Amino acid sequence: MARQALEMADIVRAHGAAFAASRSGRVSGAESRVLHAVTVCRTAALGAHIDACDECGHEVITYNSCRNRHCPKCQASAAFAWLADRQSELLPVEYFHVVFTVPREVAAIAMQNTRVVYNALFRSSWETLREIAADPKHLGAQIGTLSILHTWGQTLEHHPHIHCVVPGGGISPDGKRWVPCKPGFFLPVRVLSRLFRRKLLEALGRSFDAGDLRFYGSLAHLEDPSNFWAYLRPLRGKDWMVYAKPPFGSPDCVLKYLARYTHRVAISNHRLLRMQDDKVTFAWKDYAHASRRKTMTLSAVEFIRRFLLHVLPRGFVRIRHQGFLANRTRREKVALCRELLAAEDRAPPVVLSPTAPPEHPPPVCPECKKGRLVLVRRLSPRELAYALPVTIHDTS
User: In terms of residue numbers, what domain contains 364?
Assistant: First the structure.
């Protein structure tokens, strides 16, 4: 794959020092690690590996990836490996996509308390789905979800929200039958929205009482309990945005969707259009106007600042499995779901080959155009400096 004309690494190399100066050198350790990883990704600084063509023997060097989860270059291979593990878990049912978002007032608290509020987002959205689905008035079943945290909007502003991919049905309370949802309809979004609002506000209140929230700058006045509760009070009367997209088609469609969403970063290199002087121009979709494609130009310093808004706390898990898809019991529960569905004469799910799906074949030899490149040797940065001059294979 040809290298993008402009990459995030180019912007950081050119304007990273100016960004640090704008902060008077106060760049956090997490931010510094991300900026460094982005700049050295797929360069000689990280070493390389030699691939050889299985047909003609031609050798090429491929620089190693940084594997940082915020790096625009590294997520395709990570998503591929993760998806290979998900294929065996697909069920022959409709899948639904439910999105939980928060008002800007809550997003402001989240920006200063990322770990606490993001965990509360996951917990509140899951508890909402679980409780409404368990209610006999709606579904009356134990469900499973795969939840993914995104913290950005199209213009890189801070916009935390949870994407949930949910099989359309669940296990009956006695564990003896599969309870399907109505075709094309999972759960009522208005009911979900109101319960989610209550649960997240209660979670924020508990965190405040426990002393787990910190406030700075324009929010410093929320350290006072009377100000904090006054800040939250109007949110109880607002409608919070929870929406469900149309159901997916086949299990194959679910996998393709997950490939786009699970390992997405704040901005991909293909959206970067140009860097001129101290300005960066990128493409974005205006979802408020029929997803119209537009462009935005920001100062490079502001662009880097927005990019770093989405650096997650170290060790934070942004993809989570709950209910019958929870890690501890997933294998047994999915097997039970298959048995219950088989009792209803459901067709088996489409399972793609985990070894060579058509979207990610091994690289083709640039010399003979027939063979595939196979790993034969790894090179450290020091070894790379003394390697014989061979072709550099850019996989950007």
Answer: 8-71+360-392
